[in-house]
Design brief:
The structure holds 2 protein chains of 2 kinds. Chain A is mainly α. Chain A contains 11 helices and no strands. The radius of gyration of chain A is 22 Å and the shape is elongated. The N terminus of chain A is likely disordered. Chain B is mainly α. Helix content of chain B is 80%, strand content 0%. Chain B has 13 helices and no strands. The longest helix of chain B has 39 residues. Chain B is elongated. Classes of the chains: A mainly alpha, B mainly alpha. Chains A and B meet through helix 1, helix 4, helix 5, helix 9 and helix 10 of A and helix 1, helix 6, helix 7, helix 10 and helix 11 of B.
Chain lengths: 291, 303
């Protein structure tokens, strides 16, 4: 999947860039650690968490952190730590599916638009304009509100509103790549359209697309949590960071810990993936290191 | 410019059709919500005719648009007497005030931070400012809001928890909504400043012996403003989207609260109208940004 160039550091940066590069690799390492931690937590949630995420413990309802509940307890005495641990699963699964599907749809449609041009291109770009007329998360809110709260619907909503970025990027990349000599050479050798697009053009567009996808993961995590916070994402009873913060906002006076900890988990995750995105971008494009 | 306006109008009409089509294609019957599952078929049919749900979706969309434009649109659930447009026009200013205030918060934080970082590039000031910027992007609004409430409204008791009665009610929501933009904008400001500071006219100004402060603010900053203003215009949409979450946190009586209440009640006329007004605001601001950009920068106008 990953281009070999993503693992190799950019060669010989200009002297003033060196310090910045060091900072980036520090950020990259931090990002990798966060990503690893998230995957690890999601995979081994049942082993790591002291209780099932929604186990009821009425005597300890809204209990402060410490004792039986390390990070405290929420409504009906659910364990906040266990909820946060299981929430990592929802965050990871939803964001990976949403980003993967968005990328697949966007790259295919955008690639075809750039390659074929003409009416298809025009029609697709007008449709993209329509989807981009909805500010921010509004389209996803509308879709999930109509379809009802479920994680599948969240993935669908985020894909439906998220593929446009890949489509635009892929289209512009294809437009510049399709005139390259090696594409002409492949065509002269008798390669078909599909082969040229998927074997010759798109692999060369992989770098910027990978950067876009890396940055999209924290975006999807935030979007899922926001939808769950609004009651439109994870169905009731599912452990989701956003839903737990929502629960916590009702008890800010008596039990502020309920809202506090899932938010910290999420801020760390988003921070890590943003650093990772920066590192991937710098590794892909040595010219940018200067900034 | 006409082309730009045309594609904006096209996108708006498309958005209206998309929203209507979505409501049409989705399983689930608003009549069932109104009358309950046990209602007799005759009653359902009568109700369907009464609210116009027996017509094809494009005709319903047309009727909806006409009613919205003339202000006659009413909520799609009992009580039918309530008009939607007065609710919209009560909520819209609140959302615009909130978005405007958070933009102001973002500007007040981001410009000094970005300029300072650029002026002292590579120093501790730069790293600290950019560290703050990176952290600011990562804070989810629906979490930052409650945390600000705990700190400033409950622990310190400086500001009200929620509502919209006075200027003091605006501060926490505006900070909540504006933080992410402040973080992003300070990175843009820094990058734009660094770029302008390499320009020849800045070098000339320095060579003339002008004081560093004058060069920084009068020569570099003023010329670095254009991309900053453009980003502000284009990010307004993200603020509108983020306002929905922020309004829920602070019970701010704006479009977001209206939308979420309508969603909860399954009042699809109001949902549709609110989504549409959101979209309209966004498209108008984006188009204005593009047009202003062309007017301000002769290099763009010439093309």
């Amino acid at each position: 999947m990953i281009e070999p160039s993503s693992n190799t550091p950019p060669a010989a940066p200009a002297p003033p860039a060196r310090r910045r590069l060091k900072l980036d690799s520090w950020g990259g390492r931090f990002g990798l650690a966060v990503a690893f931690l998230l995957v690890f937590t999601a995979l081994f949630a049942p082993l790591l968490s002291p209780y099932p995420p929604s186990a009821i413990d009425l005597p300890h309802e809204l209990a402060k952190p410490g004792g039986a509940h390390v990070l405290g307890a929420g409504e009906n005495g659910i364990d906040v730590l266990s909820h946060v641990i299981y929430g990592a699963r929802v965050s990871l699964i939803v964001s990976l599916f949403a980003v993967g599907l968005s990328a697949a749809v966007g790259i295919t449609l955008g690639g075809l638009a750039g390659y074929l041009g003409g009416f298809y291109d025009e029609a697709l770009m007008r449709f993209v304009d329509i989807l981009l007329a909805f500010p921010g998360i509004l389209l996803a809110i509308f879709i999930t509100s109509v379809l009802g709260p479920s994680l599948v619907n969240v993935v669908f909503a985020l894909t439906f509103s998220g593929w446009t970025g890949y489509a635009r990027l892929t289209r512009s990349l294809v437009l510049s790549l399709r005139e390259r000599d090696y594409v002409q050479a492949a065509r002269a050798l008798g390669a078909g359209n599909g082969r040229i697009l998927f074997r010759h053009i798109l692999p060369n567009a992989a770098g910027p697309l990978l950067v876009q996808a890396t940055f999209a993961i924290p975006g999807a995590i935030l979007a899922e949590a926001s939808l769950s916070f609004l009651g439109l994402g994870a169905p009731p009873g599912t452990a989701s960071w956003g839903a737990l913060v929502d629960q916590g906002t009702q008890y800010l006076l008596v039990a502020p810990h309920i809202a506090l900890y899932p938010g910290i988990a999420m801020a760390l995750t988003v921070l890590g993936f943003n650093f990772l995105g920066d590192a991937v971008r710098d590794a892909m494009d040595p010219k940018r290191v200067e900034r | 410019m006409m082309r730009r306006l045309g594609s904006a109008a096209l996108a708006l009409v498309g958005a209206l059709l998309l929203v209507s089509l979505f409501l049409e294609l989705v399983p689930g019957d608003p009549i069932e919500v109104m009358l309950g599952e046990q209602a007799a078929t005759v009653d359902r049919e009568a109700m369907r005719r009464a609210v116009g749900l027996d017509k094809p979706w494009y005709e319903q969309t047309w009727v909806f648009t006409q009613q919205l434009a003339t202000g006659e649109l009413r909520t799609s659930l009992p009580p039918f007497q309530r008009k939607v447009v007065p609710q919209l026009s009560a909520a819209l200013p609140n959302t615009l005030i909130l978005a405007g205030a958070s933009m102001l918060v973002a500007i007040l934080i981001a410009l000094p931070l970005g300029v300072a970082a650029a002026a002292r590039k590579g120093t501790g000031v730069d790293h600290a400012a950019m560290g703050v910027a990176v952290a600011g992007v990562a804070l989810p609004r629906f979490w930052l809001g409650p945390m600000l409430i705990i700190l400033f409204a409950i622990k310190l008791d400086w500001l009200p928890v929620s509502g919209a009665e006075s200027f003091r009610h605006l501060i926490l929501p505006a900070v909540t909504l504006g933080t992410a933009l402040a973080a992003f904008l300070s990175r843009i400001t820094r990058a734009s400043m660094l770029e302008t500071m390499r320009e020849e006219f800045v070098i000339v100004a320095k060579a003339k012996g002008l004081s560093p402060q004058v060069v920084l603010w009068k020569h570099a900053f003023r010329n670095a403003l254009l991309p900053i203003v453009t980003v502000l215009g284009l990010e307004f949409g993200a603020l509108l989207g983020g306002a929905i979450v922020t309004e829920k946190v602070f019970a701010w009586p704006g479009m977001g609260t209206l939308l979420l209440t309508a969603i909860e009640k399954r009042d699809y006329n109001t949902v549709r109208a609110t989504v549409l007004v959101f979209t309209l605001c966004y498209v108008v601001v984006n188009t204005l940004t593009d047009v202003t950009y062309a007017l301000v920068d002769p290099r763009v106008r010439k093309r």
